[in-house]
Design a protein that fits this description.
The chain has helices at 21-31, 50-57, 68-73, 76-81, 93-101, 107-114, 127-131, 133-144, 170-181, 217-228, 256-265, 309-314, 333-344, 384-406, and strands at 8-13, 35-40, 61-62, 85-91, 119-123, 148-149, 153-156, 162-166, 192-197, 202-205, 208-210, 232-237, 248-252, 271-274, 281-283, 303-305, 322-329, 348-353, 365-366, 368-372, 375-378, 382-383. It is of the alpha/beta class. Strand 1, helix 1 (21-31) and strand 2 (35-40) form a beta-alpha-beta unit. The two termini are 35 Å apart. The chain binds ligand PMT.
């Protein structure tokens, strides 16, 4: 049984029917030896009492932001600083919306905004509220901000409806807490990882361009995973509307030529990963002025081939120890990707099927085939974050023997 002795968990309880499960969570944490401090939102006080939680935790339970006594005893900033982990359970739709948008109008939301500690949230709400686009947008924002979510589980809800929305069971939340409180391995500390992401934009004239549907989600997910493993992470990104992942060095670019220049400028690197959907062609002779519509005759665009960034870096010097490409295919997915692996000189290539209807461009999930000289691994469909984590863990393992040899 993993001990949590010496660890402090700050449990923030939102106002939902699932708040009653917080009692069991406090009990489990105490059994493991953790210190549990608790904040109740005003709505949570309608479901559970400070007295019962105080008896279970053996600690004062905090409720009001503007309590002079509380601020003197333990200010809200201090509450989050003194914790090793913040756990929001239940994370109601309202509390998640506040977290995603940086609102700070009560003790719970102020503490969440003021913290620099990791946050685990266990969502619990009505299934329609969970499925609402606004909640799903907030979920995406929170994930991008590094908040770890556990649940919600599927099942019958207090309101009589079925579907996702039930808070994860206290035992499952405890497992996540234990994992998050373990010292994190940083196998890529001291290593540099360069990642390209998003589309490129190739201008036609001052107001028009050629581009594609890449959202940058896959590349940004890989960058987040690289930061988590301790790498110095440079993200060279075409124009996307995603938040910059914390801890990355961001280099925004527009065209394939800009992306190549930025990549060359970031060498040497230990690992380079080419997720960007680079335009294969640019317009030869970009018009200085906006092209005019002339009667009945559309302009003929003449295209020139763009440099292959991946192939240039893979065959250049100094070459990163590991070069990883992606292959976006609509037919003969693995066969075409294997040809690209050889032609472009990379060590690994992740092939994904981007046919219409696959939802890979712009979506949150991906199904990749990891191809190397030694064969093909078919990964199941998963969240792009999970693809990023698996890939970076694999790459860290590939570097590890060389690192040991050098020591
Ligand atoms: O951004 P998302 O919406 O999350 O979508 C993710 C994705 C579908 C864009 C991503 O998973 C992906 O497949 N990226 C590669 C897109 C692509 O351009 O594939 P390609 O098969 O045309 O190119 C093969 C490889 O060469 C890629 O690593 C690409 O970055 C690289 N390349 C291509 C052309 C070029 N001029 N320079 C390059 O470096």
């Amino acid at each position: 049984m993993t001990s949590l002795a010496g660890k402090t968990v700050l449990l923030i309880i939102g106002g939902g029917i699932a708040a009653y499960k917080a009692h069991e969570l406090v009990r489990l944490l105490k059994t493991r030896g953790a210190r549990v401090r608790i904040i109740l939102t005003r709505a949570a006080e309608e479901f559970v009492t400070p007295l019962s939680l105080s008896s279970l935790s053996g600690e004062k339970v905090y409720t009001a932001l503007f309590s002079l006594t509380d601020e003197v005893e333990m200010g809200h900033i201090q509450l989050s600083r003194a914790a090793d982990l913040l756990v929001v359970a239940p994370a109601t739709a309202d509390l998640m919306a506040k977290m995603a948008n940086g609102l700070a109008d009560d003790l719970a939301s102020t503490t969440l905004l003021a913290t620099d500690k990791r946050i685990l949230a266990a969502p619990a709400m009505n299934v329609r509220m969970w499925r609402h686009p606004a909640t799903q947008r907030n979920v995406e924002t929170l994930k991008r901000d590094g908040v770890v979510l556990v649940g919600p589980a599927d099942g019958e809800m207090a309101c009589g409806e079925f579907g996702p929305g039930r808070m994860a069971e206290p035992g499952e939340i405890l497992d996540h807490i234990i994992t998050m409180l373990q010292p994190r391995a940083q196998p890529l500390a001291g290593r540099k990882v360069v990642i390209t992401a998003g589309p490129t934009r190739e201008p036609i004239d001052p107001v028009r361009y050629i581009s594609n549907h890449s959202s940058g989600k896959q590349g940004y997910a890989i960058a987040r995973a690289a930061v988590e493993l301790g790498a110095e992470t440079v993200l060279i990104s075409g124009p996307v509307s995603l938040a910059i992942p914390p801890g990355v060095q961001m280099m925004p670019v527009e065209t394939a030529q800009d992306m190549l220049t930025a990549c060359k400028g970031e060498m040497p690197a230990d690992i380079a990963i080419f997720t960007a959907a680079v335009a294969d062609w640019r317009v030869a002779g970009v018009a200085v002025d906006k092209l005019k519509k002339s009667a009945g005759k559309p302009p003929a665009l003449s295209l020139a081939e763009n440099p292959d960034i991946l192939a240039t870096i893979a065959r250049g010097s100094p070459r990163p120890e590991i070069v990883v490409g992606f292959a976006a295919e609509t037919e003969r997915v693995t066969e075409n990707a294997m040809e690209k692996l050889k032609k472009k000189g990379c060590d690994l290539i992740l092939a994904n099927d981007v046919s219409a209807g696959s939802g890979v461009f712009g979506g949150d999930r991906n199904k990749v085939h990891l191809i190397s000289a030694s064969g093909i691994e078919n990964w199941p469909e998963m969240d792009k974050d999970e693809v990023g984590r698996r890939l970076m863990e694999r790459l860290a393992h590939m570097l590890a023997p060389q690192q040991r040899a050098a020591e």
